[in-house]
Amino acid sequence: MGVINTPLQFLTPMVMLGRKSITGSFVGSIKETEEMLEFYKEKGLSSMIEVVKMDYVNKAFERLERNDVRYRFIVDVAGSRIDQ
Q: Tens of pLDDT along the chain (84 residues)?
């Protein structure tokens, strides 16, 4: 469902007793993601990324907290030495 501008109304006990949850996301559906990726492909667009290895992940989080990030972090698990 898309974004709505009116409050949702529901019977709380029905949600609680049925162990249901209500969540939301701004990411979109798989179909919308596929459409967006196809658009990027058609236009020759790409993301600006910074590839980091596993041993740099803690430092990357520190940089996120300081707002010292220009690009999206991508963790290179395959190139990291995680078996040592």
A: 456 778 877 778 877 787 777 777 777 788 888 998 899 999 999 888 999 998 999 999 999 999 998 888 899 988 776 555
Bridge partners for 66 per DSSP:
none
Nearby residues of 20 by Cβ (< 8 Å), 6 or more positions away = 14
| CB contact at 8 A, 54 and 74 | no
CA dihedral 8, 13, 16, 22 (to 10 degrees): -10
Distance CA(75)–CA(5), nearest Å, equals: 37
Whether the model clears a pTM of 0.85, i.e. scores above it, the answer is: no
Tokens of 61: 């989080």
User: Residue 29 corresponds to which amino acid?
Assistant: S
